[in-house]
Amino acid sequence: MAQDIKSTAVPEPVKAALKAKYPEATKVSWEKEKGNYEANWGGKSGEDNSVMFTPAGVFIEIVKAISVNDLPKAVAPYVAAHYKGAKIKEAGLVTDAAHKVTYEAEVKGGDLIFDEKGNFIKKD
Question: Is the pTM of this model over 0.85?
Fold first, then answer.
């Protein structure tokens, strides 16, 4: 589970890495998740962009909020078949440090991860 933390609790290398990689990031909120640091900013919710860094400031991934309609076409049928009655609440385009792209679909109970073609990879 992620926990909200104050900016003062974020290590300097993490804040410096965010500023260097995403200078446009303003009004950033922070969370600590699985020992890493997540910066969130942008959009009405303040979470259109979500970037994860290690405590040393090494970039892990960025998740950009997208419309549920922008998910690969195979995602909705998969969710309908495997999560009866569940609705996709939020969607994200995930790009990791190696520039590998995946998609995230949030349903009740967790995030479902799909490849670029909409093939299910795992539940987070």
Answer: yes
